[in-house]
């Protein structure tokens, strides 16, 4: 597999290489987002409070997951570079180290999240009508963090070497399984009791455990480009240094993104449960666009990383330019479509609440006009990450969320008394600014200078 895969992504037509990586990643990410969409569909039949309870939990769940996401990104970048340099021994060792580190991290985060669930929900502003369901949902979800993280690192490592189809098959299977288990655990059937809101989390944990087990079995067998081993799972200081250098800024980026979502939710909750439900629907529609944008960004990371590993810097730059064009024009078109179908989409999830439908549809319409700039930012971040310059992605994300979006949402909604509409408008304005800054910074070429200074990927592990 080594020579064929290496030639495919470091030689030949760039568009076909990017497409062969991006489409399966995007499809897998869309399938994963279906977990939340399926949950929302079934919980919407319980009422707006059920949707609001899960919507309130989502930013905190994302915050916890983002803390460990830097390790998964570091795994992708390091493995892609070693693959591009045709160093299979380093691929296997780095993969084993990544699995080991993510396992320890996930256990720690699962324990902390479980016991901190109550206070966290109170801090974020959960009202008395939804706090019990929010806490229960978060606790059950926390129990599945270990499984979720292990499958995420499996996905990331496979994407790093360019084996993107295998995770798709696993995700497709688990999503179909989740669709069947959701109504079973939410409403109950026969001897199985209905757990209400918590049932959606139970269903997700079961399917995540199955996905993680399959991923580990595949990597231990070593027949799909990566072979991990227990003997390589220990604290290696050189690997820790490389992982930390790449992963820490990525973790900060994702954490600040999640914290921004959490603080945004604090503003949203001040307008009542109906607005929380509307925001939850809009956020899920946004995730349906963010997911393919992230997928294209991840594909860019892998392709840029492999070409840098092969010392083909000009080709890596061509990859980034092509990704930028696809992202901007493609997601602008998707935004136009989302604008047109905003009302029926919102009605699909909460069919019997006209106020939530109106507010949720307005949120979707306002956001949709900036999807092209959001996609542009994601592929630029993917380029910087593939080059190992994760600090650039971190600073751009902090700019978009903390310098622009959150303060602007507060000013528009309270100071200028626009109410929830002010929150909605903070999204497109921040996307426009962050996307533009990312592209301008890419054109300065500083990320290429970083690559020439850092040649650690040329050395493997003895």
UniProtKB/TrEMBL annotation:
One of its GO terms (cellular component) is plasma membrane. Coiled coil: none annotated. It is found in: Cell membrane. Its main location: membrane. GO terms for biological process: monoatomic ion transport. GO terms for molecular function: antiporter activity; xenobiotic transmembrane transporter activity. It holds the Pfam family MatE. The chain crosses the membrane at residues 12-31, 51-79, 99-116, 136-154, 166-189, 195-220, 258-279, 285-305, 326-350, 362-380, 392-416, 422-442. It is a multi-pass membrane protein. Keywords: Antiport, Cell membrane, Ion transport, Membrane, Transmembrane, Transmembrane helix, Transport. This is Multidrug-efflux transporter. The lineage of its organism: Bacteria, Pseudomonadati, Bacteroidota, Flavobacteriia, Flavobacteriales.
